[in-house]
Amino acid sequence: MNEQRPVGELLRDWRQRRRLTQFDLAELAQISTRHVSFIETGRSLPSRAMLLRLADRLDVPLRERNQLMTAAGLAPIYAERALDHPALREAHAAIELVLYGHEPHPALAVDRHWNLIEHNRSLVPLLAGVPDFLLARPSNVLRVGLHPEGLAPRIINLGEWRAHLLHRLRHQIDATGDPALSELYQELAAYPAPDDFDDNDVPASSLVAVPFQVRSELGDLSFISTTTVFGTPMDVTLSEIAIESFFPADAATARAMRTLAASLEPSPTASH
Questions:
Q1: Integer Cα distance of 110 and 227 in angstroms
Q2: Tell me, what's the pLDDT at 1?
């Protein structure tokens, strides 16, 4: 069992991750640089209110804020409930409303490790042919997308899309320091990549957004995506959910999605 690190060390790590000096953090928190130094070295133990203020200025995720509280000998503040918990009923309904309301275009909800939580019916045609071992829960959508036995062989712009996903993952690792994400990055980066594209290449300047271009049973499709998160979460689970929504990036994809729409039964949320 790992020994709990002192709260001052954890705060120093977050400050350095945010590329702030002690003076910078003191200015943001409206306290003295000496106070910041005393907290980081353990000469002063922060109060609950001070710890919340520093965590807010450092943009520490809710899960890690609880870890800071525990390290300071305080009770965690933010609950972590399963998505089917009664307290999250309305939030869960909102996720389903977004997913099914986005049909006939694909949309999916993931947790902070990119494990699939839910998806709408329009995603199913894109996953045709993906082996069961990649789709078995917890199914990781980045692994499904880049694994050589997953979607990768059917992604038309694999090099560009791969570079985009790895860039997003690096940014998430920088923001959270999550070791599980670092392990995932190492795995994905080791997958075979197109010879003519480097993971650090910059997409063409003529692009509005990096498209997801894939061969499917509906034909060759091209999408651009958006990410939706809850704006004011106070629950750890809710704070870590992201909804990825895909929109047609060309007329052919829009037509294919209209054709798909004709085959879908009314949304299961239609009566809600």
A1: 10
A2: 43
